[in-house]
Amino acid sequence: MAKTEKQKQEPLFHIVKRIIGIPTWQAWLIRIASVAAALLVCAVVTVMLTGENPLNVYKTMIEGAIGTERRIWNLMQNVAMLLCVSLAVTPAFRMRFWNIGAEGQVLIGGLATASCMILLGNRLPTPLLFVVMFAASLIAGAVWGLIPAFFKAQWNTNETLFTLMMNYIAIQIVSYFSYIWSNPKGSGAIGVINLNTQVGWLPTIGSQKYLLNILVVAALTVFMFIYLRFSKHGYEIAVVGESENTARYIGINVRRVIIRTMLFSGALCGLAGLLLVSGTDHTISRATAGGRGFTAIMVSWLAKFNPLYMILTSFILVFLQKGASEISTQFGLNDAFSEIITGIIIFFIIGSEFFINYSIRFRESKKGVQAK
Hints:
Radius of gyration: 24 Å
Order of helices and strands: EHHHHHHHHHHHHHEH
Helix content: over 70%
Strand content: under 5%
């Protein structure tokens, strides 16, 4: 009698999620190997597309990021700002609330700061002005984070779409006031606020105007590590992120945690807006956030929501960005090539997380199965 059913053959390999995580040293070894592989691929791509020596390209990348003292401080400033926004979105992400609206929350916080500098700069004493700016930026960012949190907690709306749409609203609001306060009138750009008096500008420490920003973010990093790891609120955030049903079962008010966490997350984004407007740019525009709200998602995820690891991931991404820009300048290449190099390296870094979290198991031979 002929067989009517064909025997199904087991796939050559299948992917299995690791139940027990690999040791930390092995995880970092995989990450380092991925960077080495990325540099090798970039070298091949460089030779194929431009004919340039890859070693010269990498040397130029390093010099573009840390070649001079000024570039080093600029790099540290950009790392601090990206890190600040990454820290801001992390509590929401640990709660599995996908806050894609950091870009808008930063802009609204920056707009509140700029409003105080423009409208109150000549009316309040400087110490009081800083207090008002600080409070206004935090409140503005917190309110912008509260709106999607309230709808999520009350009616279980999709926070990803909600926060994303809030970004566009914030951009248009900033564009509107950029036209209202434009200098000169009708230009659509505010320009440097209080250029002559420097009222509302964060003070410089020594001769480094970015140092205060860096110190504030450094203190915030330590605080966030302690807050998420050791505080009661941090524990509640983690429990809600693992399972809302479990959180309710043990008596945690999930709605309150969602609203409180997004208030906190939005307020920290508002703080980032304050540092950018008052401490770095001294103006506000729709490009003030500079895409950091979206890049921060990658930083937070790659660091597995650990504030200390975010320092490294923020540094890597900003280093690549600064170095890639220098490549375009020195070798007369367009920005597309530098973005190709950056994209390849980031792709390998992200891809390394696959091998850390999953293992590949190949099909065993029939002889091996029979022997067992």
